[in-house]
Design a protein that fits this description.
The complex is a heterotrimer. Chain A is mainly alpha-helical. Helices cover about 65% and strands about 0% of the residues of chain A. Chain A contains twelve helices and no strands. In chain A, helix 3 packs antiparallel against helix 5, helix 5 runs antiparallel to helix 6 and helix 6 packs antiparallel against helix 8. Chain B is α/β, with parallel strands linked by helices. Chain B contains six helices and nine strands. The two termini of chain B are about 35 Å apart. Classes of the chains: A mainly alpha, B alpha/beta, C alpha+beta. Chains A and C meet through helix 6, helix 9 and helix 12 of A and strand 1, helix 5, helix 6, helix 8 and helix 15 of C.
Chain lengths: ~350, ~250, ~400
């Protein structure tokens, strides 16, 4: 991104003047878009209602109204809560989201950091949010929160494995853990000698994509895996005692993570910022790349919300069974198959 | 506005024809469909005596089973069977109904306070006085309903036989000084909550009940609301306006 | 009742101690989880106290009474026509169906019979109430197991039925339309055709629910084999309605003990399911909604002409006697035991409401299930708080 401006600022100027605001934007803008487009509007149409209509044209300012509402609310601490842990939990969850954004490539040069072990790093920091949720569940001194937090911990740990194993197939095929390298290997790949559209890994790793999306759904605690917040059982699980700005932070964390995980899925399976027909080294990708990535991200995020509002939720034991008895064996088989084919071909 | 689908019109036509045919035939003979089990026998031109064979048979079975423990019985034709037993036979009567009559379905259990309300009917507005003489309520004697009674509180329970399609109301008088009865839980598990309700509402006691706590009322509630001498406080505070607007019947003119 | 100040303080302290139960994480015998009285799953104010071992329920007990309105006492100071206003509010989703058994009981005592047209219209409104009530169940059951969308469809399509009820009675929820000896008014013009169209919509709604909820593998995994009630247990607890039929007992008051309504005139079927689990309760209710549509389509075509009101005196005094009339309400058997002493007001009215008996099985049924199953079982038993607390 810096190269198109023909500038080469010092690292601290890059970091504080450019990367921090853009990073904030990269977290909040998709989260806001997802909330408005999908949580407010698309879902309303699915449920044959209009959704917000009064605030701004088609209710587009509703989000600002909601944020304003949450900011004004009193930040309540339960009497018996562990104050420090209770206060810190939403930040831990949000931190996980921000750390995930860091490794996302949005163009040949438009990256925050270009880690060699990018996807490995992403998988590692994504599990930080478990700690935040467990903190919230424990510190609230509420039984619903406690049950929700424990459910979340069990669930996130169970689905971390299929998530990582699904990514392994992609890594084997790309031959690198660098996110940029994964994009380029899809852009420069060929399908049986034909390089017209590159080689998006969705074609070869569709099993991996399926497992990845199921696991992401569970990681995000969206229905049918929303038992940590199951509102008909646990009120809202670990969120029960939160109000005001801390609830808002959880809320942002939830939907920003949905955006980031969709973006990661777009990078891993749909070629990230690349579109066929333009040379991947072309500088134009530094400008249109973020938009392309955002477009792919929104398409994948739609899947998440489509499932969320269609399916009932599993019971806790059924969810564990699905992870350990079905998804993990399936992803291991996928890895074996990918490995064999990689060697043979 | 949608059209009525054609098949519906046909059905409706058929139904109307059937109704007309029945209306014609019913003038000739008075046979009813089998399942009602109520037969009308026309004795004279004006007087119609109805008998309920199913209820008679059920009563006979119970009488045989309970060997004279039934103090009184009543059959309201087509509406069911009432029996009254002594309080010591309360549980045996339920057991007999369950075993001999196959009354496995526990319908409900409650009690009746037969004492006339000391507060009258709390209808003391002018309109009520025109329609009703308030003096009437003073010094009213206890009047019992079907199957009679001897004491103020009467337990009543209804069980139903799904196979025989007959319901039995079992009544039992509770002693005035110590209104207590054996719980029906060993026979009908569902009696549990009904007995808890009857206990708090009437101040009765059910022996061998495992869990006689209040079910509706707060634990520290005083009094037994469904007793006739429990005042309805809202009426005490603010008199009921009474029958202020008598609705016109269709076709009536002011 | 707290009278002095110290009494009041003691009362407040006791209440506070009760509230603290929610905060104590550990007790001697597992954890006590307090679901309600304000809880998203209880649609009303039911409270369930569950003793848990992990997520397994060791014992669970419903605590009611937060909404007890004392209708049995209130009926004793109201005239017979005034009572329908009260009983309307028992099962507030199918209000008209509440009025019918009381009116029928009063009619039995007075030995009047509503004219045929009134009986037909009563049956039509009764079945419309059933559809309005059960269609909400179909959506609500889905939302209790976690699917949010079906309940919106249920609210949307139920509105068509409520509109039809409103056009006749003037009230969406509390019609207060049934009268001793007949009905308050006749059907408005064009109503029958419109209702025919609404029934078509409700048929589509049932198909939609079958595809969206019943056919869903997750829904089946959540409900099949959960909360199984054997027939004998169901009978001894007095379960009625779809809960009883889902346990395989072929009994329906509309067919087997019909009083005053015209179900004999139409051709219909009683649905049963042998399993007795949550799934079968949903299935039976879905089929019953379809059957109600079927009944209505036949009834609408054949409403006889004639008066809608029998000859009854202006001031209604009911002769002395006792009568019990039960009808197959949307929630199950609802009956009124009316004791009259020849007065303007009933001497005693015992209200036998379906949900009270249906819920009395829960302590037995909830032993050993998981926390999420508490919710799905309660939803499948389908209670309405007003029908429990009266």
């Amino acid at each position: 991104m810096t190269s198109i401006l023909a500038l080469d600022p010092a690292w601290w100027q890059q970091t504080f003047l450019i990367k921090v605001p853009i990073g904030l934007l990269a977290v909040l803008l998709p989260a806001g878009t997802i909330v408005y487009l999908y949580l407010f509007k698309a879902v309303s149409f699915m449920q044959s209602r209009l959704g917000p209509m009064e605030a701004g044209p088609y209710g587009s300012m509703q989000l600002l109204a909601e944020v304003g509402k949450w900011l004004q609310k009193e930040d309540i601490f339960p009497t018996k809560a562990d104050k420090f842990v209770f206060a810190a939990a939403p930040f831990v969850v949000l931190m996980s989201t921000f750390l995930l954004v860091v490794i996302l490539p949005a163009g040949p040069d438009a990256t925050f950091v270009n880690l060699d072990v990018g996807i490995y790093f992403a998988m590692a920091v994504s599990s930080v949010s478990v700690i935040g949720i467990l903190m919230a569940g424990w510190a609230s001194a509420n039984k619903y929160s406690l049950l929700g937090g424990i459910r979340a911990a069990g669930q996130l740990i169970a689905y971390e494995l299929p998530l990582i194993l699904a990514v392994v197939g992609v890594v084997i095929q790309a031959g690198t853990m660098n996110m940029q390298g994964i994009v380029l290997s899809q852009a420069e790949g060929e399908i049986f000698g034909w390089g017209g559209i590159g080689n998006p890994f969705i074609l070869t790793q569709f099993i991996g994509f399926f497992i990845f999306m199921v696991a992401v759904q569970a990681e995000l605690t969206q229905a049918p895996f929303d038992m940590p917040v199951a509102e008909s059982e646990l009120v809202t699980g670990y969120l029960t005692e939160y109000s005001g700005i801390r609830f808002l932070l959880f809320f942002i964390g939830e939907f920003a993570s949905a955006g980031v995980f969709s973006a990661i899925a777009a990078v891993l399976f749909f070629g990230g910022w690349y579109v066929p027909g333009i040379d991947p080294t072309n500088d134009i990708f530094n400008v249109i790349g973020p938009l392309i990535l955002a477009g792919k991200m929104m398409a994948i995020a739609f899947l998440i919300f489509w499932f969320r509002f269609t399916f009932p939720r599993f019971r806790e034991d059924q969810l564990q069974r699905l992870a350990w008895k079905f998804l993990i064996p399936l992803s291991l088989a996928n890895i074996a198959l990918t490995g064999v084919l990689k060697v043979v071909l | 506005m949608a059209e009525i689908p054609e098949h519906l019109l046909k059905r409706a036509q058929a139904a109307r024809e059937k109704a007309e045919a029945e209306a014609k035939s019913s003038t000739g003979d008075s046979t009813k469909p089998e399942e009602t089990a109520v037969t009308e026998t026309t004795e004279t031109d004006e007087e119609v005596i109805l008998t309920d064979e199913k209820a008679e048979a059920a009563l006979a079975t119970l009488q045989q089973e309970l060997e004279g423990k039934i103090l009184d019985s009543h059959i309201a034709t087509g509406r069911g069977l009432w029996i009254r037993v002594g309080i010591q036979d309360w549980r045996p009567a339920a057991k007999a109904a369950k075993e001999a009559l196959d009354c496995k379905f526990f319908d409900w259990l409650s009690a009746i306070d037969w004492m006339p309300s000391p507060y009258g009917r709390e209808h003391e507005t002018e309109q009520d006085l025109i329609n009703d003489d308030p003096e009437e309520n003073d010094d009213k004697e206890m009047e019992w309903g079907y199957t009679g009674g001897e004491t103020r509180f009467q337990l009543i329970c209804r069980v139903y036989s799904i196979s025989k399609k007959i319901g039995v109301m079992i009544k039992a008088d509770l002693p005035d000084n110590d209104p207590r009865a054996l719980s029906l839980i060993p026979i009908y598990a569902g009696a549990n909550w009904h007995e808890r309700e009857a206990r708090e509402m009437f101040g009765l006691t059910f022996d061998e009940h495992p869990d006689l706590r209040n079910i509706y009322l707060p634990g520290d509630f005083e009094g037994h609301p469904l007793r006739k001498d429990y005042p309805l406080l809202s009426r005490r505070m603010k008199p009921w306006p009474g029958i202020v607007d008598v609705e016109l019947l269709p076709g009536d003119e002011e | 009742m707290a009278t002095t100040e110290s009494d009041q303080m003691a009362y407040i302290a006791a209440q506070a101690a009760d509230a603290r139960v929610n905060v104590e994480v550990e007790t001697d015998e597992g954890m006590t989880l307090n679901l309600g009285p304000q809880h998203p799953a209880t649609h009303g104010t039911l409270r369930i106290v569950a003793k848990l071992d992990g997520e397994k329920v060791l014992a669970a007990e419903p605590i009611m009474g937060y909404m007890h309105r004392g209708y049995e006492k209130l009926t004793e100071v109201r005239t017979y026509p005034q009572v329908t206003t009260l009983v309307n509010r028992i099962d507030w989703l199918g209000s008209f169906a509440n009025e019918v058994p009381f009116i029928l009981a009063a009619e039995q005592l007075m030995e009047v019979e509503a004219p045929p047209r009134a009986q037909w219209i009563r049956t039509v409104l009764f079945e419309l109430s059933r559809i309005a009530n059960i269609s909400l169940f179909l959506g609500d059951m889905a939302v209790q197991v976690g699917a949010t969308t079906p309940v919106f469809y249920a609210f949307r399509d139920r509105e068509f039925v409520l509109n039809q009820i409103e056009r006749v009675t003037g009230g969406r929820f509390h019609p207060n339309f049934d009268r001793i000896g007949g009905l308050k008014d006749d059907l408005p013009k064009g109503w029958i055709e419109e209702t025919g169209a609404v029934l078509g919509k409700m048929r589509d709604f049932c198909d939609e629910m079958e595809e969206l909820v019943l056919g869903n593998e997750i829904f089946q995994a959540r409900t099949r084999g959960i909360g199984v009630i054997p027939p004998d247990v169901a009978l001894s607890y007095g379960l009625s309605g779809a809960n009883l039929r889902a346990s395989g007992i072929d009994w329906d008051i509309r067919r087997d003990a019909n009083v005053g309504l015209v179900y004999d005139e139409v051709d219909w079927k009683v649905w049963t399911h042998p399993d007795g689990d949550s799934f079968s309760r949903f299935w039976v209710r879905l089929q019953e909604t379809r059957e109600a549509i079927n009944i209505l389509e036949q009834l609408l075509g054949g409403i006889p002409s004639g008066p809608i009101m029998a000859k009854v005196p202006r001031i209604i005094k009911v002769p002395a006697g006792e009568a019990y009339v039960a009808t197959e309400n949307p929630l199950g058997e609802m009956g009124f035991y009316v004791v009259s002493q020849g007065d303007l007001t009933p001497f005693r009215v015992k209200i036998r409401s379906a949900s009270f008996s249906n819920m009395s099985i829960t302590p037995w049924l909830l032993k050993g299930v998981f926390v999420p199953d508490i919710i799905s079982i309660l939803a499948s038993l389908y209670f309405i708080l007003g029908d429990i607390d009266r």
